[in-house]
Amino acid sequence: MNDVFAFGYAGRKLPTLVQNIKDADAVLVDIRSDPLHRPTWTRRNLEDAFGDRYVWAGDTLGNVLYRTTAIQLVDGVTGMELLLSIAEKHPVALMCVCERESECHRRVIVAELEKFGLRVFHHPPPARATTTASNEDTKQCPECRAWIIFPRKGGRAAADQDAHILREHPESYRRMWAIRATMRNEKWLGAEFVPEAR
Ligand SMILES: [Zn+2]
Ligand SMILES: [Zn+2]
């Protein structure tokens, strides 16, 4: 199964998203009940921009009660079947308008997908990093799937990945070092290493 990227398009730019979807070889699944009234983000515009990488699923995964704060999917079972069948072949970009997941009906869809063991990221699929030099290569962050550029020579890939994880995912960084420390038979005490006396 491929990864799922769940997000709202509020504040985002359409051309950037088109590039991200292409780079990730993803399918954009629009879960708005009413995809008509927003300029730029109408169903028609999205069909033109994404071609067959766009699926409107508001007829199953839309929120019947979208004018309220309550959530009731139109036909959640059929919608889930659709998402799982797409995820077999492509990463799924699950898109609504809402910026915050806590205020969006996608949170119940995301919870269902996680029950099926799919990994869900809470941002659009990242665009593939473009390297400028022939001695550069790219690597995808295991935490957020962002692309990291690193020099091909000199063994810097691990260091660059560490730097990204430290900056973007400090919790994981601490966990990672705790694991490494354990492996080295050292004790991890809060912020610093304390090598165990041998
Ligand atoms: Zn929403
Ligand atoms: Zn990351």
Protein topology:
Blueprint: E1 4-8, H1 14-24, E2 27-30, H2 43-50, E3 54-56, H3 58-61, H4 76-87, E4 92-96, H5 106-115, E5 120-121, E6 136-140, E7 147-151, H6 157-168, H7 170-183, E8 187-189, E9 192-194
Helix pairs in contact: 6-7
The structure holds zinc ion (2 copies).
Q: The biggest beta sheet, please?
A: 5 strands, parallel
Structural shape: globular
Instruction: State the oligomer.
Output: single chain
Bound molecules: zinc ion
Helix content: 25-40%
Mean pLDDT: 87
In the residues, how many domains can be counted? 2
Describe this structure as you would to a colleague.
It is a single chain. The protein has 198 residues and is of the alpha/beta class. It folds into 2 domains: 4-121, Tetrapyrrole methylase, N-terminal domain (Cobalt-precorrin-4 Transmethylase, domain 1), CATH 3.40.1010.10; 136-194, no CATH class. The chain has 7 helices and 9 strands, in the order E-H-E-H-E-H-H-E-H-E-E-E-H-H-E-E. The strands form 3 sheets. Strands 3-2-4-1-5 form a 5-stranded parallel β-sheet. A two-stranded antiparallel ribbon has the order 6-7. A hairpin with a 2-residue loop joins strand 8 (187-189) and strand 9. Helix 6 packs across helix 7. The longest helix has 14 residues, at 170-183. It is globular and about 55 Å long. The model has no long low-confidence stretch (mean pLDDT 87).
